Amino acid sequence: PQLANQIAAGEVVERPASVVKELVENALDAGASQVDIEIEKGGARLMRIRDNGCGIAQQELTLALSRHATSKISSLDDLERILSLGFRGEALASISSVARLSLTSRPASQETAWQASAEGRDMQVQLQPAAHPVGTSVEVLDLFFNTPARRKFLRTEKTEFFHIDELIKRLALSRFDVGWTLSHNGQNVRRLKPAMTPEQQLQRVATLCGRRFSDSACWIENQHQQLKLWGWLLPPTAIERQPGCQYSYVNGRMMRDKLLNHAIRQAYGDWLGDDQQPVFVLYLQLPADEVDVNVHPAKHEVRFHQARLVHDFVVSALSSALGQLQP
Ligand code: ADP
Ligand code: MG
User: Fold this and answer.
1) CATH number for 139
2) How far is the CA of 139 from the centre of ligand 2 (A)?
3) Nearest bound ligand to the CA of residue 69
4) In the chain, % of residues over pLDDT 90
């Protein structure tokens, strides 16, 4: 199974940030309201993700580490939904084939926690009792230690950590209800408390995307039939020349979509200078059967069934909000 897992790992595990992405998504799937991430040496040495989610029962731990074991598919409908998100049920197995992975977990129903790690050529899973609050910690040590060719492709510590931090920013802007911490080499880099009220949410946006948001951002909230758009954008008077934040989410997932970017740019019109770029954090919600999410999860692309309608809605919602600010 080691080789098959390593081949699968080629798809899932591109760099440290892709490991963090899979592990954080698992934490969110487990219903965590707090996710703590510790990184050492850009993730090459250590990535530890701890959550306060539902945990994994002792008898399920071994299974969780094996390939194609997912507890998340219960119907065909589900299967289709999950396939559209990419490779499923293989993240833990793949990661543990290219790093030293251990899983420590305690569901609320258990008195003690258990730790599982897969070792050796045959990936024999070892189980031992451990101390851990309700929830799960996944520790990934020495990424690509057994695949030197891949290890060579890791960029500098700083670059790899930059990608992890960028990922956490994206996630923190999609889950205001979750508290996050991120540290690198023992130093705290981000500490975000759950943001429930609109004020707290704007504060989180300002922390992640620049102080300009807290005094100048324009709040958007608009609905047309089944389409909803909300979020913040900066008027050109508050936009600096260096590239700023551009975050758009479709049904809760971060997207980099040409049509949306075009609509946003158009809404600014002539007000935006030639040397300026739009700055925004925007959320678009529409019925799930109105969009296709690209099968490759890393590409962040969508296809809207009614592209014209979505485009025009975004332009009109944003330009009317910006219009009110324009002198
Ligand atoms: P998938 O997420 O696609 O199901 P993974 O390999 O990422 O596949 O995880 C395998 C299984 O391990 C999950 O289905 C889940 O049951 C369990 N699991 C992994 N991480 C966690 C976690 N942080 N909390 C609770 N359960 C988890
Ligand atoms: Mg997963």
Assistant:
1) 3.30.565.10
2) 15
3) 1
4) 69
State which of 92, 106, 125 you would mutate to test the pocket of ligand 1, scoring each by most atoms of that ligand within 8 A of its C-beta.
92
Alpha-carbon span 325 to 235, nearest angstrom: 8
Residues 182 and 295 reside in one and the same domain = no
94 lines ligand 1 (CB under 6 A): no
Give me the CATH number covering residue 299. Answer: 3.30.230.10
Residue 101 Cα to ligand 2 middle (Å): 14
Q: Give me 210's structure tokens.
A: 């620049």
State which residues have CB under 5 angstroms from ligand 2, the bound ion: 26, 91
Is residue 16 within 8 A of residue 37, CB to CB? The reply is: no
- The verdict on ipTM greater than 0.95 is yes
136 in ligand 1 pocket by Cβ < 6 Å?
yes
- Domain membership of residue 17 (yes or no) is yes
Q: Please tell me the distance between residue 66's alpha carbon and the centre of ligand 2 in angstroms.
A: 12
Which ligand 1 atom sits nearest the alpha carbon of residue 94?
Answer: 6
Residue 247: how many other CB atoms lie within 10 Å:
21
- pLDDT tens string 81-131: 544 444 466 889 889 888 999 999 999 999 999 999 987 667 788 999 999
Q: How far is CA 295 from CA 13, 86, 185, 281, 289, in A?
A: 17, 6, 35, 24, 15
Q: Dump pLDDT digits (tens) for 25-79.
A: 999 999 999 999 999 999 999 999 999 999 999 999 998 888 665 666 555 455 5
Report which of residues 301 and 28 the model is more confident about. 28
Question: In this predicted structure, what is the pLDDT of residue 72?
Answer: 62
Distance 22 CA to ligand 2 centre (A): 5
What tokens were used for 110?
């258990």
177/243 same-domain check: no
Give the structural domain span for 162: 2-192
Mean pLDDT over all residues of the chain? 89
| Inside any domain, residue 199 | no
Distance (Å, rounded) from C-alpha 148 to C-alpha 117? 21
Residues 142, 291, single domain; the answer is no
Is residue 22 one of the residues assigned to a domain?
A: yes
222 and 179 share one domain: no
Tell me how many domains the chain contains.
2
Say if residue 189's pLDDT is above 60: yes
The token pair that represents 154 in the structure block: 């890791």
Identify the nearest ligand to the CA of 30 by its number: 1
